[in-house]
Amino acid sequence: MHRKEKKLHRKIEKYTIFYNVEANEGHFIFHLEGKTKGTPTVTLLLASPQEGTLILDILRNEQPVYYDEENRILISGLHFTGISKGKSTAKSAGKSVSKSTVKIKGKK
Fold it and tell me: Looking only at Cα atoms, what is the longest distance across the chain?
């Protein structure tokens, strides 16, 4: 009998951010690709405004961005090194790639 492999991370298709200034509390709602069971969203309560700024920067500037629900990690897609404003300094043969991950502390 084969076990069904669980997908560790899903692409974030859309997001919404809410911040309650009076309570000093923020939330991200991630709409995940291919999420069929339960709700298609994940809600993240932010640990600090700085964490919200970092996550918002990643969501706005990196593509694609994935969310690992089990480990609560944001993962950006693979990128060629040396890219600046759409220009790559990597040679066409043997290009290096980098992958960014951010462990989210957040409140549960």
Answer: 54
The answer to whether residue 15 is domain-embedded is yes
Question: What distance in Å separates the CA atoms of residue 72 and residue 103, rounded to the nearest whole number?
Answer: 7
Does 65 reside within a domain?
yes
Q: Is residue 85 part of a domain?
A: no
- How far apart CA 56 and CA 53 sit, in angstroms, is 5
**pTM greater than 0.85 (yes/no):** no
What whole-number distance in Å separates Cα of residue 71 and Cα of residue 99? 17
Residue-by-residue pLDDT tens, the chain, 108 positions: 455 555 678 899 999 999 888 988 999 999 998 766 666 888 889 888 899 999 999 999 998 999 988 888 889 887 777 756 555 444 443 444 445 555 666 554
Burial (CB < 10 A; 0-12, 13-18, 19+), residue 73, is middle
Distance CA 56, CA 15 (A): 9
Contact 60, 17 (CB under 8 A): no
